[in-house]
Amino acid sequence: MGFGNFNKVVLIFSRPFWDVTQNYFGHLNHSRASRGEMFMFTALSKAPVLIAMMAGEAANLEAPNEVIVRKAMNVLANIFGSACPKG
């Protein structure tokens, strides 16, 4: 189909720090190279869980889990500032 890779990262938190009335929210990356990296987040309605979407080059299956989670947390920190948990 030509879409490339598409992966999801499930992030589990102790409590929501995002607006729980929103089912999803997006993030625009500044560079074209990282445009598919954590570009959309879906919130589960009954749990403090976010699912981050990655597509294309950013959905690299070779990256260690720690690197992927760190990138997702950096994006969330850029969106939510100090409300976002550290690490």
Automatic annotation (TrEMBL):
InterPro entries: Amino_oxidase (IPR002937), Flavin_monoamine_oxidase (IPR050281)
Pfam families membership: Amino_oxidase
Annotated keywords: Oxidoreductase
Keyword Ligase: no
GO MF term (any one): flavin adenine dinucleotide binding
GO biological process: chromatin remodeling
Domain of life: Eukaryota
Keyword Oxidoreductase assigned: yes
Record SUPFAM superfamilies: FAD-linked reductases, C-terminal domain
Domain (Amine oxidase) ranges: 2-82
Transmembrane portions of the chain: none
Family statement: Belongs to the flavin monoamine oxidase family.
Protein name (database record): Amine oxidase domain-containing protein
